[in-house]
Specification:
Belongs to the Ntn-hydrolase family. InterPro entries: Ntn_hydrolases_N (IPR029055), Peptidase_T2 (IPR000246). GO terms for molecular function: hydrolase activity. This is ASGL1 asparaginase. The protein has one domain. It has 165 residues and is mainly α.
Length: 165
């Protein structure tokens, strides 16, 4: 076989996308795919490419990841991330993490630097500190749109499902 052409597929999430957000979401998915593809073209690993593509979406307020995440009941950003290596099925995950811009990076560190598969909340926080992952103020991850959706969900007659899109 000759050299394989690198391929990357990026999924921007499920649910209905409203007209006014369509363009930004599409552009964000394309940007994420191109960043991941760029890593592959430079000889980076599939894991590097996946981490880069996800990081791109975590940094993009159009997606429910990182900056732009749906808020929890208290109105905070609380995130989960998981990454898996298809070669050996190793995986790493974090859950309920706060004040970290790119949980995907932390999930990868869990996979590569610990014997664990999943770290959560306080344990994930301590591990992030030990790994030198910078903290960001929680408010930096909250967008106007997530705040509005959260407020709507607090209304007694609200149907939260409707606002998850």
């Amino acid at each position: 076989l000759g050299s394989m052409k690198p391929v990357i597929v990026v999924h921007g999430g499920a649910g209905r996308i409203f007209k006014e957000r369509e363009e930004g979401c599409r552009a964000g998915v394309v940007r994420a795919a191109l960043r991941g593809y760029g890593v592959l073209k430079q000889g980076g690993s599939a894991l590097d490419a996946v981490e880069e593509a996800v990081r791109s979406m975590e940094d993009d307020p159009h997606f429910n990841a990182g900056c732009g995440s749906v808020l929890n009941e208290k109105g905070e950003v609380e995130m989960d991330a998981i990454i898996m290596d298809g070669k050996n099925l190793d995986s790493g995950a974090v859950s309920a993490v706060k004040c970290i811009a790119n949980p995907i990076k932390l999930a990868r560190l869990v996979m590569e630097k610990t014997k664990h598969m999943l770290l959560t909340d306080h344990g994930a926080h301590l591990f992030a500190q030990a790994m030198g992952i910078p903290e960001v103020p929680g408010e930096k991850l909250i967008t106007e749109r997530s705040r509005e959706r959260w407020k709507k969900n607090l209304e007694p007659d609200s149907n939260p499902e409707e606002f998850q899109k």
